[in-house]
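Risk register update: the risk that structure generation would not scale has been downgraded. Supporting records follow, first protein first.
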Amino acid sequence: MEAIILAGGLGTRLRSAVPSLPKPMAPIKGKPFLGYLFDYWLHQGIKHFILSVGYKCEVIRERFGTKYKDADVSYAIENEPLGTGGGLLLAIKQLRSKEPFLLLNGDTFFAVNLNNLFKYHKNCRADMTLSLVEIKNNKRYSGVLLDKQGLVYSIDSPTDSSKTSIANGGVYMIENDLFRKHLKRSPNKCSLEEELLPQLLIQKKRIAGFASNDSFVDIGIPHDYNLAANVLSQHV
């Protein structure tokens, strides 16, 4: 299976802790965060990683090249920032297979079991499956609401909430042809979470939600970045 990793963000919120590197290259015990993602998902069965990159992409290419252990590494390079949606659409063009692919956030580790996610995706006959995580005091992540069939019917913007909610954990299983119509033109800047996903819901695409209680960490802010070593040591 192949995986696209969104690794093109500027990482402005993490600059105080990691001032000179792209966010996925933030060091954790001397190893880039991206290396932990590679190791975990390679062990889960990924054989080809496509990195959607932009900001300081040369740092990533110099470190990882075109091969990481047994997996191939390719790069979809943004000449200008395209956002999570535009970066995804650019990277899809480098997929080699017609099979479903995995999409990952380059600043998030979520220890989802790939085999279980794939089986759930197929059983739901889904066009896309979001891996969902329970977040306490959720103020950062989009809340997800599911119907009785386990399909997403609403994705809410983050709010200042003291409640626990089910959120999008940034690990997606996606059918290869889901964004086919977008690939006929050069991708424009857009957000996966705020634009492409709502469009799919309007189009009545089958977006499933796969609940997981596995470990989750997002290094996007210094506080959580400092927690990452403990989480990653349990899995990689």
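Supporting record for the second protein:
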Amino acid sequence: MRIGATPEVVTNAAEPVVGWKIWRVEHDGGRTRLRSVLYGSLWPPGRPAVADCKKLYRLRHEAPDPLCECGIHLAKSLEQWRHYLSVGGDRVFGRAMVWGNRLEGELGWRAATAYPLALYVSATLDDAEAIAEGLSVYGVPVEIARAPAHVHEAVPA
């Protein structure tokens, strides 16, 4: 998901923003964790996810950087994540909050720091109940949701 054209830099924004996020879910019976869809970075329970740039052959820089695509991506609408919801069976979606350094575009934000606020597990996932129970480790509401026909229609089951 790209945040849209001409992002503005917001440095150390005092107010957090809330948007939509998609994660891969790692569930192996004894442990359930959220991971970044693209890079597989762990979202640790109980503490913020912190972005870093994973691009090879680039000078190291703080994320997010206006000249790069790095940072934690959050969408203003769940519709922006449609592709990621349709290409993998191990996806969960939800609302997340970002704060600190961030860039805003027409479609969403890229930020340095984030944490989930609410998680939705698709009822079509194998072990949906166990996954939802395992995600409770994040300390946020977790619901089973029916798979949306159109992503903007995602509704708790």
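The mean pLDDT is 83. On this basis the risk owner (M.S.) recommends closing the item.
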